[in-house]
C-alpha cells in the first residue's frame, strides 16, 4: 500500500471516530478527501449518514470535499441522498447551502426529494422543497364532480399545501421540467397528488370571478375519444372531463388574486423575483415547462445580478456545427464548462470531463444519442 493511499484511509477512519482536528491535520499533510471503502462510501458520504457526524461533514466541505460525489452499488447516490434517506434535516440543509444538487438521480432514478418522501421524512421534504420550489403555500382545492361544484363550490373545498418544483427528466441534456405537488397537511411526507405540468393544460382565472380559481388538467391521462352518434348531454360531458386528472385550486384567502397569479406564473416556469428559490439564486438552471398551447412555452435561464432577475433566451445548441467549426462548445449537462470530452464509442463531444464521467458511472448513456459509454476521453484543442 502506498503512502498516499494509507493517508487517505486513515482520514476515512478519522471520520468514523468524529476526529475533526485529526482530519484537518491529515488533510494538511496531503491526505485525499475522495477515497472510498469497499462499500463505496467516501468520507463525506460516511459523515452524511450519521447525525452525530454533522461537524465532520461541515469540516470536510470546508476542506473541499466534492458535495456531489456519486458512488454506485449498495451505497449508491450522492451525500445528499444519504442524508435524505436517514432524515438528517440539518445535514441536508448544510449540503444544500454548499451547492448539493437536489435533482441528482441515484441508481434507482430517484432524487433526494424522492428518497425523503419514500422514507417518510417530512422535515427533509420541506427543506428540499423550500430550496427549489417556484411556489409554495396553502390553497383551497375544490373536489367532487364538476357537476356538484356548480351548485355548492364552497362546501366542497379543503385546505391543502401546494408546491411547484422542478424535477429531473433523467436526461442531462434536456432542461428541467416542473411538477405540481399537493399535500393534505404539512406533516405529510407523501403527497396526495403529483401532476406533471409539462403535460398539463392550465386554464387561468377570469377577472370577473368573485372567488377566482384555476383549473389544471393533465392531458396525458385523457382517454382516447371514441366516435359517438347522436346527442351527448351536458352531464355526460362533465363526466368525461372528470375521468382526467383534474385540479381546481383557489387562493387560501378568498379574493387573494395576487397569490393566485403567483401560482399561475410558477406553473408556467416563471419564479417571482421576491420569492426566488435558493436553487435558482445559487445556480444557473434552464427550466422548460411545455404546457399545452393555452399557456406559452417558457424556456428560460434565471440569472441574478445586483438583485435583478433576467430571463434571457437560449438558442438551441448545434453540436455538429460546433464540432465542424473547431469550437469546443458548451457542456450540455452543466451548461457552464466547455465541451472538452468525447464519449466512446459514439464519439460525441457533449460535455466537460467531470459531467460525462458522472453520466458514465450512472450508466445513463451519451446525452446526445443515448448510446452506452465505454470510455470518456478528454480532448485538447490546438
Automatic annotation (TrEMBL):
InterPro entries noted in UniProt: Ankyrin_rpt (IPR002110), Ankyrin_rpt-contain_sf (IPR036770), Dendritic_Spine_Reg/Scaffold (IPR050889), Znf_RING (IPR001841), Znf_RING/FYVE/PHD (IPR013083)
Keyword Metal-binding belongs to the record: yes
Domain of life from the UniProt record: Eukaryota
Assigned keywords, A-Z: ANK repeat, Metal-binding, Repeat, Zinc, Zinc-finger
Domain RING-type: residue ranges: 331-370
SUPFAM superfamilies, A to Z: Ankyrin repeat (SSF48403), RING/U-box (SSF57850)
One Pfam family from the record: zf-C3HC4_3
ANK repeats: 39-72, 75-107
Protein name, per record: RING-type domain-containing protein
Organism, as annotated: Brassica rapa subsp. trilocularis
Amino acid at each position: 500500500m502506498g503512502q498516499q493511499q494509507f493517508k487517505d484511509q486513515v482520514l476515512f477512519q478519522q471520520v468514523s471516530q468524529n476526529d475533526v482536528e485529526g482530519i484537518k491535520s491529515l488533510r494538511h499533510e496531503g491526505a485525499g478527501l475522495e477515497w472510498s471503502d469497499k462499500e463505496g462510501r467516501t468520507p463525506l458520504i460516511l459523515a452524511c449518514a450519521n447525525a452525530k457526524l454533522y461537524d465532520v461533514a461541515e469540516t470536510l466541505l470546508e476542506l473541499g470535499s466534492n458535495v456531489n460525489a456519486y458512488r454506485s452499488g449498495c451505497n449508491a447516490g450522492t451525500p445528499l441522498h444519504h442524508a435524505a434517506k436517514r432524515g438528517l434535516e440539518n445535514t441536508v440543509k448544510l449540503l444544500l447551502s454548499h451547492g448539493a444538487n437536489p435533482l441528482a438521480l441515484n441508481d434507482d432514478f430517484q432524487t433526494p426529494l424522492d428518497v425523503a418522501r419514500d422514507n417518510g421524512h417530512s422535515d427533509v421534504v420541506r427543506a428540499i422543497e423550500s430550496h427549489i420550489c417556484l411556489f409554495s403555500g396553502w390553497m383551497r382545492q375544490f373536489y367532487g364532480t364538476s357537476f356538484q361544484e356548480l351548485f355548492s363550490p364552497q362546501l366542497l373545498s379543503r385546505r391543502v399545501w401546494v408546491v411547484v418544483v422542478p424535477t429531473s427528466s433523467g436526461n442531462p441534456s434536456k432542461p428541467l421540467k416542473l411538477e405540481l405537488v399537493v399535500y393534505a397537511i404539512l406533516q405529510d411526507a407523501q403527497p396526495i397528488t403529483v401532476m406533471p405540468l409539462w403535460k398539463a393544460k392550465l386554464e387561468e382565472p377570469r377577472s370577473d370571478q368573485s372567488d377566482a380559481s384555476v383549473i389544471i388538467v393533465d392531458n396525458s391521462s385523457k382517454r382516447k375519444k371514441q366516435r359517438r352518434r347522436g346527442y351527448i348531454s351536458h352531464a355526460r360531458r362533465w363526466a368525461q372531463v372528470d375521468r382526467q386528472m383534474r385540479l381546481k385550486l383557489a387562493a387560501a384567502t378568498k379574493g387573494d388574486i395576487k397569490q393566485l397569479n403567483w401560482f399561475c406564473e410558477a406553473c408556467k416556469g416563471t419564479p417571482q423575483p421576491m420569492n426566488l428559490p435558493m436553487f435558482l439564486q445559487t445556480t444557473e438552471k434552464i427550466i422548460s415547462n411545455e404546457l399545452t398551447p393555452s399557456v406559452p412555452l417558457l424556456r428560460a435561464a434565471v440569472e441574478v445580478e445586483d438583485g435583478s432577475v433576467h430571463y434571457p433566451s437560449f438558442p438551441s445548441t448545434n453540436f455538429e456545427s460546433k464540432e465542424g467549426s473547431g469550437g469546443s462548445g458548451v457542456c450540455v449537462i452543466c451548461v457552464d464548462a466547455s465541451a472538452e470530452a468525447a464519449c466512446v464509442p459514439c464519439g460525441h463531444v457533449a460535455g466537460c470531463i467531470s459531467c460525462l464521467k458522472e453520466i458514465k458511472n450512472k450508466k445513463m448513456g451519451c446525452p446526445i444519442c443515448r448510446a452506452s459509454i465505454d470510455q470518456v476521453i478528454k480532448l485538447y484543442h490546438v
